[in-house]
TrEMBL record:
Substrate binds at R227, V228, G229, D230, T250, G251, M252, G253. This is Glycosylasparaginase. The record marks D198, T199 as: Cleavage. Keywords: Signal. Residues 1-20 form the signal peptide. InterPro entries: Ntn_hydrolases_N, Peptidase_T2. Transmembrane segments: none annotated. The lineage of its organism: Bacteria, Pseudomonadati, Bacteroidota, Flavobacteriia, Flavobacteriales.
Length: 339
């Protein structure tokens, strides 16, 4: 495993809030305890000064992260910024893993999943949406305009039209051709870091110091009809606790769901881990439960209330984008397994 770029990921960019020093079980890797944790933060850092706005997202979605970061700089709240970031990829026809242009299921239908969570702890989600592009925004509407958390397929779509969302065809010619090509063999084998793992998960910390997040995906390419992954599942694909921080996932949804990865990361941060440590522990939980972990990717990113960030994955090749102070940078993630 490569030496961790711990400093890069955890650099404090604003004056933070000191968190409780709690010792937690960190699994088999002893090096985790040697890292600087939040408990080493100076007590004088406990101040009302808030960190500067930060946007982070999964993968090298440069434009999406920039859109979210700029929105924050212009005063947008964390949730609005996170959704604005997701929209860039939902509308990017070249992206075959999010929104319009996403790869279809094995029947040829593109079905999108998304969820959002705000600083108040409210959340909304949609699953198996096949006619609306901006599903993160739709999930927000479910949160704000219905008494429910999650709507599925036609119910979500009909609700979306009533809220002014356009009915669209999501399968592009390019995705259709790729699907027809796939049908020649119909072999389903997720390919690490390529088409199957490019969900956009966005976390934003706004000028008020509030944290929110959004997650949007077309799920696994050529999945079974009706299959839903972690991305729209609160606690698995995304979790926010505005007192602590937030986390979001990408990769093999089934494994993320089994370990409730994003909720786990926030709870580990609550117990004193840095975002980096918490992401690493969450990946280790997946690895510990799977002898075949070399065959799939799982990656997490996280942010805490003080503005520290972290990312970690099973396989090399995952990147987190980070926008702060007008700088949008790609942070190469450390990884568990070197292939
Ligand atoms: C899923 N987590 O549906 C998603 C997959 C992913 O780009 O990350 N896709 O399981």
């Amino acid at each position: 495993m490569k030496r961790r770029k711990f400093i890069q990921n955890t650099a404090m960019t604003g004056i933070g809030v000191s968190m409780a020093a709690v010792t937690v079980a960190c699994g088999e890797h002893s090096d985790i305890n040697t890292k600087k944790t939040n408990k080493s933060m100076n007590a004088s850092e406990e101040t009302s000064t808030k960190p500067k706005p930060i946007a982070i997202c999964t993968w090298a979605f440069t434009k999406a992260n920039e859109a979210a970061g700029k929105a924050l700089s212009e005063g947008a709240d964390a949730l609005t910024a996170a959704i604005a970031g997701c929209e860039v990829e939902e509308e990017n026809l070249k992206n075959t893993t999010v929104g319009k242009g996403g790869a279809p299921d094995r029947e040829g239908n593109v079905t999108l999943d998304a969820c959002v969570m705000n600083p108040q702890g409210d959340c909304g989600a949609v699953v198996c949406v096949s006619t609306i592009t901006n599903v993160a925004a739709l999930a927000r509407k479910v949160m704000e305009e219905t008494p429910h958390v999650m709507l599925a397929s036609e119910g979500a779509e009909e609700f979306g039209y009533s809220q002014g969302f356009k009915k669209e065809k999501l399968l592009t010619e390019v995705s259709k051709e790729a699907w027809l090509e796939w049908q020649k063999t119909s072999k389903y084998k997720p390919i690490i870091n390529i088409e199957n793992h490019d969900t956009i998960g966005m976390l934003a910390l706004d000028a008020n110091g509030d944290i929110a997040g959004a997650c949007s995906t077309s799920g696994l390419s050529y999945k079974m009809k009706g299959r839903v992954g972690d991305s729209p599942i609160i606690g698995s694909g995304l979790f926010i606790d505005n007192e602590i921080g937030g986390a979001v996932a990408t990769g093999m949804g089934e494994e993320i769901i089994k370990t409730v990865g994003s909720f786990l990361i926030v709870e580990l941060m609550r117990n004193g881990m840095s975002p980096q440590e918490a992401c690493e522990e969450a990946v280790r939980r997946v690895v510990a439960k799977n002898k075949n972990y070399k065959d799939f990717q799982v990656a997490y990113i996280a942010i805490n209330k003080a503005g520290s960030t972290g990312s970690y994955c099973i396989h090399e090749g995952f990147t987190m984008m980070k926008y702060q102070n007008g700088i949008n940078e790609a942070v190469k993630s450390d990884f568990h397994h070197s292939s």
